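The step that takes the researchers longest sounds almost clerical: writing a folded protein down as plain text. Below is the pair of lines this work produces for a single protein:

——
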Amino acid sequence: MNAQSYAFDPAPIPALPVSGSTLLFPIHRVYCVGRNYAAHAVEMGGDPDREPPFFFQKNPDDLYVGDSFPYPSASQDVHHEIELIVALKDGGVDIPQGRALDCVFGYGVALDMTRRDLQARAKEMARPWEVGKAFEKSGPCSALRAASEIGHPTAGAIWLDVNGERRQTGDLDQLVWKVPEMISHLSGLFRLAAGDIIMTGTPAGVGPVERGDAMRGHIDGVGDIAFRVI
């Protein structure tokens, strides 16, 4: 029997490097949590009180490691949003919170770059956010750090500097929905799988970037990210 053939060569599997090794983490899906820091919910016009989490998605190949972020087309207002990312090595449905961290491979630092003008237009028309969130190269990332190395961070500074000026600052303990809660809730909506990435939300201070800006972000105990807007 002939081996299965494709109409054309498949695209490479999107992947992130694993710090301290030659391993690559293959990306399956990317789930993003909206308004998961109270102060950011307020600055975006939302309710700071704890409300059920909501999610949107990026494409797996939107995430990448590199030293530059290409300013996207069709937008004049692109914003930075620094986030902790959670990489899963296991999944399932209806995962109990008490077992959720068993599914975690590791953590990293990423930015959810956002075409804010297009997102705002989508909100006004009650349409999905993907046009503002899921464009090419919209998820600059650091290498992943394995949970076996750093544990499961629940507190620690998260910040972003633009051209040496502090723009965003917060602490992981300010997450409205904690990592086990996010995993458990998501698994009631989707069948989670090895290779899934969860972007956990951003602290207050989001704002626009310009071509030439130098971006530097950090999460205590997890890592750093640095790139330039081109």
Summary: The two ends are 50 Å apart (CA to CA).
